[in-house]
Amino acid sequence: MQKWIMSGILIVACAFAAVLMFTLPGKDQVAQEEKPQMPAVTVSAEQAEATVKANCISCHGTDLQGGAGPNLQKIGSELSAEQLYGIITKGKGGGMMPSFKDKLKDEEIANVAMWLAEKK
């Protein structure tokens, strides 16, 4: 009887492993999900400034001089538009920089990222 139970458990475990192998995402898919794709937009400084004013100055300051968040006045010399897009979209620092993917449209985030990337 005990052999039948052990055999049954082994068969169930193998079936479960096979199901997981075919349903879990692969490394490439996970990497793609972790790196958001920045949409192509034309930079509008006016719109970017309005978005920053409405969402960012409480942490980064009215002149992007920093405060609770880092100084962004010359962030373009450190990070590319794609890197900035990823940070704004996903957040950073275990909650220090919140994610804006549910608050802003992808195009708004891309516009702000491109605008910030020009600050060198």
TrEMBL record:
Q: Where is the Cytochrome c domain?
A: 43-120
* Taxonomy, superkingdom: Bacteria
The UniProt keyword set, sorted, is:
Electron transport, Heme, Iron, Metal-binding, Transport
Does Kinase show up as a keyword for this record? no
Report the Pfam families cross-referenced here: Cytochrome_CBB3
Extract the PANTHER family matched here.
CYTOCHROME C-553-LIKE, MENAQUINOL-CYTOCHROME C REDUCTASE CYTOCHROME B_C SUBUNIT
What is the designated name of this protein? Cytochrome c
Q: Which organism is it from?
A: Paenibacillus vini
Q: Which gene name belongs to this protein?
A: cccA
